[in-house]
Amino acid sequence: MKVFIILSLIIKVVCPAVHMHHVFVYGTLKKGQPNHSIINNRTIGQAEFLAHARTVERYPLVIATKNNYPFLLNVPGTGQRVHGELYSVDQKMLDFLDEFEECPELYQRTKVRLEVQDGDGDVENTLKPEAFLYSRNKYEPEWLQKPTYENYDTNGDHGLQYHEDTSPE
């Protein structure tokens, strides 16, 4: 036990703790989705998968625009409990995600409570952790009439595959 305490102190002095943030991803950043490589890119910042989780509250997760982007609309109490992945990210990755998600112009980073489905480490024992989530406060009114999803997959039954617009402007 003494060795463990001494080793812990040495690690804290030699490798000072980096403040990590919890981020919940529900769309193209999830494993198996088109932009997942971003969250694994160590040159951008650090990110560690913690658990599969879902929102405690219901939100409308819709697919919209000509590029079929998944959008979580910030309308708590409507839609479905959204499934996604919980990550621990450093400040550098969080800053990059803000830029990638065009926050605050396109998406807004807000806090959400989650129910952990499975996980590694300490998070598994925390029933309802909070995490950052990228959602939309501003959207087209007709988006609220679109089908909502509890789990996004670009190759899902909806037939609305995500794609980037590569045409010149």
Write the layout of secondary structure elements.
Blueprint: H1 2-14, E1 20-25, H2 36-39, E2 47-55, E3 61-64, E4 69-72, E5 83-90, H3 91-100, E6 108-116, E7 130-135
Antiparallel strand pairs: 1-5, 2-5, 2-6, 3-4, 6-7
InterPro entries: AIG2-like_dom, GGACT, GGCT-like
GO molecular function: gamma-glutamylaminecyclotransferase activity
Region (Disordered): 145-169
Molecular structure report:
The chain is an alpha+beta fold and 169 residues long. The protein is globular, with a radius of gyration of 18 Å. The strands form two sheets. Strands 1-5-2-6-7 form a five-stranded antiparallel β-sheet. A two-stranded antiparallel sheet has the order 3-4. A hairpin with a 4-residue loop joins strand 3 and strand 4. Keywords: Lyase, Signal.
Describe the structure concisely.
It comes from Cyprinus carpio. Residues 145-169 are annotated as: Disordered. This protein is of the alpha+beta class and 169 residues long.
How are the strands ordered across the major sheet? 1-5-2-6-7
User: Major sheet, described briefly?
Assistant: 5 strands, antiparallel
Arithmetic mean of pLDDT:
87
Alpha carbon gap, first and last residue:
64 Å
Q: How many distinct beta strands?
A: 7
Low-confidence stretches: 1-16
State Rg: 18 Å
Percent of residues in helices comes to 10-25%
So how many helices?
3
Mass-distribution shape: globular
Portion in strands = 25-35%
What class would the helix/strand composition place it in?
alpha+beta
Oligomer: single chain
Order of helices and strands: HEHEEEEHEE
Keywords: Lyase, Signal
Catalytic activity: epsilon-(gamma-L-glutamyl)-L-lysine = 5-oxo-L-proline + L-lysine
Signal peptide: 1-16
Active site: 101
